Amino acid sequence: MQKTALYQKHIDLGAKMVPFAGFEMPVSYTGIVEEHNAVREAVGVFDVSHMGEFILEGSGALALIQSLTSNDASKLFPGRVQYSCLPNASGGIVDDLLVYQMAEDKYLLVVNASNIEKDWNWIKSHSASYDVKMTNISDDTALLAVQGPKAIEALQDLTDVDIKSLEYYHFAIGTFAGVENVIISATGYTGAGGLELYIPNADATKVWDAVFEAGKNFGIKPAGLGCRDTLRLEMGFCLYGNDINDETSPMEAGLGWITKFTKKFTNSETFEKQKQNGVEKKLVGIEVLEKAIPRQHYEILDANENVIGEVSSGTMSPSMQKPIAMGYVTTANSKEGTPLKIRIRNKLVDAKVVKIPFYKN
User: Fold this and answer.
1) In terms of residue numbers, what domain contains 72?
2) pTM score above 0.85
3) How many structural domains does the chain have?
């Protein structure tokens, strides 16, 4: 198991550590609900240094990205971030990712930890005819997600960058806590606001300590992967390996908004046909009407008890105090308000289709 540069900090804080995507990662410190609420109400800090980062630079960098990603990266400019995905040749998704334009011919791709090698090989295998240099900086880069409604106020004194005016999905590169060339990004996976900070591994501990010192009057808490999952699920954000994978199409997963047909990309003809003709199944939000928690792969049934799909993610929502889930159902059963049943421990539990996001600030 690999360890992030902040591993010892987690041990010193008494974190419960679990193996995740090849890393020893903190799942919780004081409890998932407490950490979840800290992020929703104040400030929580996640070590997400297990994520992967690739630099693509050269005159062919944009053309390569355009050919492999579903979104239109030509809309980017230095300081702008884009959510996108890497479709595969068989109608599924290699991974979802963030694309940062660092400079005119330089891009940063941020990919899921479990897919670093797969994504690198996929992109590399398509790069031969492009003037592009690829560098994998994953092992040298720490990533802190400082999330919550008080995060910006708590962190402003640590940097000369005016982070209060940094718009969502924009970033700046500047000095942060005395460390130069930190990528300060107004992004996150929680729906609670805040920043993500890309830092050299050598400076990770210094920045971690500075962030906690700056946040001590703002209710700051360390937060683990457990509440990262409950927070993202309340927002209806997809998790690779659960809600999207090599066999789910962006159109089925509700990712049509990041699938642009203004250019050709891997298997774009298939997805364009799906947009025109519709899909047979769709990812939907589900509210469970009884106190039972649905889990991945649990069967979803219609009102007549026919199996119509399965749960992809499920949890007890700490913010709303009720069980929620996402899952794939037949398109005929995907409309808001449609009654469903979920098989939980051999019992059929009542549920219904609801709009995503589940939680609204």
Assistant:
1) 52-136
2) yes
3) 1
**Does residue 8 belong to any structural domain of this protein?**
no
Residue 84 lies in a domain: yes
Amino acid found at 229: D
Model confidence pLDDT, tens digit, residues 231-286: 999 999 999 999 999 999 999 999 999 999 999 999 999 999 999 999 999 999 99
- Domain membership flag for residue 79: yes
Helix crossing, 61-68 with 116-125: angle to 10°? Answer: 110
Helix axes of 32-41 and 225-235: crossing angle, nearest 10 degrees: 50
Amino acid identity for residue 309 in this structure = G
Q: Is 106 exposed, middle or buried (0-12, 13-18, 19+ CB in 10 A)?
A: middle
Residue 38 resides in a domain: no
The residue assigned the tokens 């010192």 is 213
* Beta carbons within 8 Å of 209's beta carbon, 6+ residues apart: none
Q: What CATH number is attached to the domain comprising 129?
A: 3.30.70.1400
Task: Say which residue the tokens 């011919």 belong to.
Answer: 105
DSSP string across 282-318: EEEEEEESSS----TT-EEE-TT--EEEEEEEEEEET
Q: What percent of the chain has pLDDT over 90?
A: 99
